[in-house]
Write a structure and sequence with these properties.
With 499 residues, the protein is of the alpha+beta class. The protein contains 18 helices and 19 strands. A 6-stranded mixed beta sheet has the order 4-3-2-6-14-15, with no helix packed on it. α6 packs antiparallel against α18.
Amino acid sequence: MKKRESGQKEKPYMTTDELIEREKAEKRRNRLKNRPIIFMTYVTAILFLSLFAYIIYFVYHDADKVIANTSNKRQDVYAKNIIRGDIVTSDGVTVATTAIDSSGNETRSYPYGKLFCHSVGYNSYGRSGIELSMNFYMLRSHNNIVSQVKNDLMGEKNIGDTVVTTLDYKLQNAASNALNGNKGAVIVMEPDTGKILVNLSNPGFDPNDIDNVWEEIHTEEGKESTIMLNRATQGLYAPGSTFKTLTLLEYIRENPQTYNDYSYVCESKGKFNDVTIHCAHNNAHGTVNLEQSLAHSCNTSFSNIGIGLDMDGLHSLADDMMFNSSLPYDFAYNKSSFSLDSTSDKSAIPQTVIGQGDTKITPLHNALIMSSVANGGILMKPYMVDRVENSDGAVITRFGSSSYDRLISTDEASVLTEYLKSVCEYGTASSQFGNTSYKVAGKTGTAEYDNEGNCNSWFVGFSNPENPDIVVSVIVEDYNSNQLSGAYVARKIFDAYYN
């Protein structure tokens, strides 16, 4: 056996335990090296599964919503294979349809011209109204599969689905006739469902002639035209005495135990915070309590009430009533405004609490406030489309009513209803509603819009106060010229509803 050279160290042999320990250390090193790879593998797998799950969810839950979005321009692709569906009223009147001539050319037709122009809208130049919001639904067809296959094989288009609105032709027509060509607007809705039965603005435009209308409003002469403005939802007006309902409510809240004891002597005019306030037609109402103050719409009494109110409290109430904020409405509208608070000039108070000053409101918003009173304090979300049907009348999609929020308490709504009934029984609206077969609770308003005494006429109220049927909100512009009151227009609408 060969001997080791002198000075060479003998290599020691590893024991079994040492070998095992070395293998464990090697495995630990390998695991540390592989950890990032394993981590990325798991992340990739989770992301893939999440993406796959989202695709399934999107297809079955969100796809139609995305396609139906009014900003989605790909909707018009459907028009290659679908004849655009109709729009009809709740009482079965077709207000928009697609006419096809002998050459197969399609033209959107509006049988009643201006009557539904702002609510139904038009189908060109970006669309508007229901034509815009329900575009996707009218470009889909849910006819029976046999008919669809047959039409596909023959190269013919399928008939699009029909949009059934909440609008009522009879009431819309009654409102239009009552306005009699004068500028103004009407909103009618069911307080317990939120269904909008009338959405009328005058003057309007003929959507059958939209090309010429569009050209005209973009000329130098026509750029000031307001025919495209939906006064019912976008017109901002001083609320006039209709705002006294909120002033009254704030007074009741601040004086819960003593508001029934209120008394004031009206001498037709008075000075409040150095501002002289006159009652309408310089009427002296004499001694009035709180109910009589509202019934006779006594300006001096309400200015007297107003100067004693907590202005921050009134501002908070206005905010609760959706001033300076968004409304629960899916179509185009303008926000109402209320600016008075404890930091405001005191001289602004007497005018503001009677609905003048800088306060502005839309007829829609006024209808929503009154609707909450009629519905026991709860506001239902207003809506204008009830359902979508196929061409055979089968319901495809239904849009039900939903509660938006409680604006006031049940007790407050009950008290306000009793006060508002007095307006129609013996107050400023009694000439229209004092002897009707139905009962009405509401508030009139005369709102000046310049320094020369020119004014607009308001009425907002509801019928059958014990179990309200409909809320009507009316604004008639230029009352000094036409002598057409909002209460008169409302009366014609109520008559049409009950008769």
